[in-house]
Amino acid sequence: MTDPATAPGSAQQKIDTSVPHSARIWNYWLGGKDNYPVDEEAGDAYTAVFPGIVAIARSSRAFLRRNITYLAGEQGIRQFLDIGTGLPTADNTHQVAQRIAPESRIVYVDNDPMVLAHARALLYSTPEGATAYVDANVREPERILEAASRTLDLSRPTALILSNILGHIADHDEARSVVDRLMAALPSGSFLSVNDGSRGIDPVFERAQDAYNSSGAVPYNLRTVEEITSFFDGLELVEPGVVSVQQWRPDEDAPEPQVIAEHGGLARKP
After folding, report:
1. In sequence order, what are the residues at sequence separation of 6 or more whose Cβ sits closer than 8 angstroms to the Cβ of residue 109?
2. Residues 6+ apart with CB under 8 A from 203
3. What is the pLDDT of residue 215?
4. Model confidence pLDDT, tens digit, residues 140-168
5. CA angle in degrees (0–180, nearest 5) for 12-17-23
6. Most buried by CB count within 10 Å: which residue of 17, 39, 126, 218?
7. Where is this region: Disordered (predicted)?
8. What is the SS3 assignment for 173?
């Protein structure tokens, strides 16, 4: 279902394994295997300063799983637009959604050559549903929507997922504009899921992230809880609102949720 110009594997030659990459480091923290020694070294250096980053990465992934479970299981959402997909790991969006509703349709969006090279793992769909991959930048909402419309019926309620991607847009007004333009194209009954690293919660995390950003790596900008909440302006937040990700509808058998420096929420477009 991918465009031949962006077929998985076509970007393999563009992958630079000589410098650490955020998607591969995140994959390493999640326990994945799609990374290189340079990424492990950078990840280990980060965890030496802030060991809690592994809990943030894994809690972020669990938050996304619970979001999708709620959307597919309780709200009947059957279309998902996941922008800033990252490298495939366990419980990718289509796997969670299609376990509940095999007819679910999912479009993944990323513009990372490494993700593109591994995108075939994201395209295994149930016969009843569909998955597709779009090679595009989050800053290109209109292009994303046009490409997604080849797989999704954007006149029907759709869940927009922006998990740990908006922090790559330094300017907050620009990030809000991207969210607004994407949501404006989706009908009433659609949902927005956002989670990002938060500033003002853990100073050790902030120092580690600021040092990472100044290292020459692609920066990721932490935002205050108020700034993250502002992405949902005009939408109806699902309880419990914007909270630390472990506190968003935790599983019944989960340990007592902690406040960690990763906040997110889910909201419905009225």
Report:
1. 81, 82, 83, 84, 85, 133, 134, 136, 138, 144, 147, 148
2. none
3. 79
4. 999 999 999 999 999 999 999 999 999 99
5. 80
6. 39
7. 250-270
8. helix
